[in-house]
Amino acid sequence: MKYNNNYENPIMPDIHFRPMEEGDIPVYLDWAKRDHVKTVWFIDGYEPPDYIHTKVEGNGYDFPFILLLDDQPIGYIVYCDLYAYKNICKEPSGVFTDEPPGSYCIDLFIGEESHLNKGYGTQLVKKFSDMLLTQKQAKRVLIDPSPENTRAIRCYEKAGFKPIRKGHNGREEVIILEKRSTTCSM
């Protein structure tokens, strides 16, 4: 961690995101092979790593981004317009198949192990969900971690999400957390 000149307060690194491009796919596929990612993200019944090509090309509801720390790729985040998903996808599945307009979900991973457990996830989730609430006029943003993923749940709660219900995504039970817009109600 960097410090300012008087060594009192740490200077937080620049954490941001940008839309994913074809050139980012090799690093994404490398992250997908790492144990801390594949054991949570790429288990039987979930989408295969190669599905990222469809997202990057554009399917009308999934929008992938690369997470950056001081302009270095460290992970992946995606948002899904859930209303578009239920209307465009031929066979929607999971816990978010009948959401009203203005509903989005996000999912993410930090691919670089050296950047785990440093608070970057909380900052990124807060910044990304706030972007959806303001720039995309989302009414709510949802996320559905496994109940066993207590580290992720704490991260999401620190970023402003609140648990609203349990659900089943077709593979396992999940906890659904929500962050609502403060300017509109559903």
Features:
6 helices, about 190 residues, about 30% helix, 9 strands, alpha+beta
Could you explain how this protein is built, in words?
It is a single chain. The protein is α+β, with helices and mostly antiparallel strands and 186 residues long. It has a single domain (12-180), classed as Aminopeptidase (3-Layer(aba) Sandwich), CATH 3.40.630. The chain is built from six helices and nine strands, in the order E-E-E-H-H-H-E-E-H-E-H-E-H-E-E. The strands form two sheets. Strands 3-4-5-6-7-9-8 form a seven-stranded mixed β-sheet, sandwiched between helices. The protein has a two-stranded antiparallel ribbon with strand order 1-2. Strand 1 (2-3) and strand 2 form a beta hairpin. Helix 5 packs across helix 6. The termini are far apart. The mean pLDDT is 88.
Mean pLDDT over all positions: 88
Number of domains: 1
User: What is the H-and-E element order?
Assistant: EEEHHHEEHEHEHEE
Query: If strands are numbered along the chain, what order do they take across the biggest sheet?
Result: 3-4-5-6-7-9-8
Name the CATH homologous superfamily. Answer: Gcn5-related N-acetyltransferase (GNAT)
- CATH architectural designation: 3-Layer(aba) Sandwich
Q: Write the CATH fold name.
A: Aminopeptidase
Q: How many DSSP helices?
A: 6
Most strands sheet: 7 strands, mixed
Instruction: Count every beta strand, where a strand is a DSSP E run of 2 or more residues.
Output: 9
What is the radius of gyration?
Answer: 17 Å
Per the principal axes of the C-alpha atoms, what is the gross shape? Answer: globular
Considering DSSP H and I runs of 4 or more, what fraction of the residues is helical? 25-40%
Q: Which structural class best describes the helix and strand composition?
A: alpha+beta
User: What top-tier CATH class fits best?
Assistant: Alpha Beta
Poorly predicted regions are none
The N- to C-terminal Cα distance equals 41 Å
